[in-house]
Amino acid sequence: MSLTDLLFSLGVAFALGCDAFAVGLAVGTRNPCRRACFRLWFHFGLFQFLMPIIGWYVGNSIYEYIKEIDHWIAFLLMFVIATRMLRESLAEEKDDDSPGADPTRGWSLMGLSIATSMDALGVGFSMGIAQMALFKPAVIIGITAALMTYVGVHLGRHLSHSYGKKVETAGAIILYLIAFKLLTI
Fold first, then answer.
1. What residue ranges of the chain have pLDDT lower than 70?
2. Cα atoms found within 13 Å of the Cα of residue 6, Cβ hemisphere only
């Protein structure tokens, strides 16, 4: 890998990791346990690694059909999760064992992982069109997203300890902002 390719991969990885960082920050405000933190950064890194590969191989066949609505899919996933998070942050008592209370499990985790990695799908598609190398940039993108998510979650946890439920509400608002940003893809 040349220095130019490495710099390109790091730049793309950082840009793609920003959404993962912001979502990690928002989820971190909910003070997740270590296992939940691991699930989040692992899945975000995995999806950010896999989506460019999928974009590369799928290329014109499926992307042509979904390119007009991919931003709507990502928006809806993120909007629903943000709404659930906001509702729970404003509730009087929070029952951590209730279904849907942990955004790092089940469909919420899947939705967040897909929504934060939709840009990576487009990057992979573009890399395929440009006949660029795939595997090494995908690894760099995945590792960077995992690290940025890890940092975001821990920063969100710290802010939550300092400022309480207000930060969880702010986290939901951040997810809304990301959702609306996804409409501009």
1. 59-64, 77, 92-101, 129-131, 164, 167, 185
2. 3
Supply the angle between the helices 70-90 and 106-129 in degrees, to the nearest 10: 150
- Please provide the DSSP assignment of the chain as one string: --HHHHHHHHHHHHHHHHHHHHHHHHHHTT---HHHHHHHHHHHHHHHHHHHHHHHHHHHHHHHHHTTTHHHHHHHHHHHHHHHHHHHHHSSS--TTSTT--TTSHHHHHHHHHHHHHHHHHHHHHHHHTT---HHHHHHHHHHHHHHHHHHHHHHHHHHHHHTHHHHHHHHHHHHHHHHHHTT-
Q: What is the pLDDT of residues 30-68, one digit of tens each?
A: 888 899 999 999 999 999 999 999 988 876 566 667 777
Q: Report the C-alpha gap between 63 and 122 in whole angstroms.
A: 8
Q: Is the torsion defined by CA of 91, 39, 54, 132 positive or negative?
A: positive
Query: Structure pTM?
Result: 0.72
Q: pLDDT tens for residues 119-134?
A: 888 788 777 766 677 8
- Delimit the domains of the chain by residue range: 35-182
